Amino acid sequence: MTATLIPTSAPRGTARGRGGEAPQGILRLGRGSGLALGLVLLWMSILVLLPLVAVLVTASTDGLAGFVDTVTSPAVAASIRLTVLTAAAATVVNTVMGTVVAWVLVRDRFWGRRLLSLVIDIPFALPTIVAGLVLIALYGNQSPLGIVLAQTRWAIFVALLFVTLPFVVRAVQPVLEELDRDVEEAGASLGASRAVVFRRLILPNIAPAMAAGAALSFARGLGEYGSVVLISGSLPRRTEVASARMLGQIENDNLAGASAVATVLLVVALAVIVLLGVVQRQTARRG
């Protein structure tokens, strides 16, 4: 007697192949998907989750009192405040200007458009320390423009603008390319001004992409080091960012203190990303 491996009648909704047999590809896909999911979870645990857990555990080495004392000390608190506020300001500016740049790249046709698109990706390609050297050459004590920003908070702001601009541009650009321009033309034909067409028809569609780019831009700004440390001078309680403060603590064998600062930045970054994600989903529903 031979056992029947494939049921003679497939369940409703199940695809059936020749001779009433279930397609083997579906079974293989299910097994492969489970294996791929397990591999992804393992890989993410090794690269992301375990390091994060290690940072949190190290930050709690001195207990809650030690953690609070570290992050509320004047120098550390000043570096965190400077980092968060400057990253937020750069994110706001680049969200606006990045959207404008993406609009020009998509809607306008001009000589050098491809070159402009290539230039936008330069902050992605440059090592951050090289970006810092570029900014020193332009805004240092021997600035050819006569604009000296070295060892000021403006230097940090300009550095973050430089390294975070591509995030918003590359997030918004493909969405603009997919928009149906016939809808915009229909709105204009009904008497709507350009501002109304943009606010009612275009902005709801690109807002989720703007939020995604802003989240990435802010997260990058919080952790930026190479381009900032060279031009800012890392003066304690003046131009020292959180990443530079963490490096100083590590060099002084204060790993718990550095981990405490990293934990605060992590919480801030996650809170902003979650908030922008909520805005993104609500905007997508309205659209």
Automatic annotation (TrEMBL):
TM regions (residue ranges): 35-59, 79-106, 118-140, 152-172, 201-219, 255-279
Membrane topology classification: Multi-pass membrane protein
Segments for region (Disordered): 1-20
Repressor as UniProt keyword: no
SUPFAM superfamilies: MetI-like
InterPro entries: CysT_permease (IPR011865), MetI-like (IPR000515), MetI-like_sf (IPR035906), Sulph_transpt2 (IPR005667)
One function term, GO molecular function aspect: ABC-type sulfate transporter activity
Locations listed in the record: Membrane
Main location class: membrane
A Gene Ontology cellular-component term: plasma membrane
Domain ABC transmembrane type-1, first and last residues per copy: 80-276
Pfam families per UniProt: BPD_transp_1 (PF00528)
CDD domains: TM_PBP2 (cd06261)
Sorted UniProt keywords: Membrane, Sulfate transport, Transmembrane, Transmembrane helix, Transport
Matches recorded under PROSITE patterns: ABC_TM1
Subunit structure: The complex is composed of two ATP-binding proteins (CysA), two transmembrane proteins (CysT and CysW) and a solute-binding protein (CysP).
Family as reported in the entry's similarity comment: Belongs to the binding-protein-dependent transport system permease family. CysTW subfamily.
Function noted in UniProt: Part of the ABC transporter complex CysAWTP (TC 3.A.1.6.1) involved in sulfate/thiosulfate import. Probably responsible for the translocation of the substrate across the membrane. Part of the ABC transporter complex (TC 3.A.1.6.1) involved in sulfate/thiosulfate import.
UniProt-recorded name of the protein: Sulfate transport system permease protein CysT
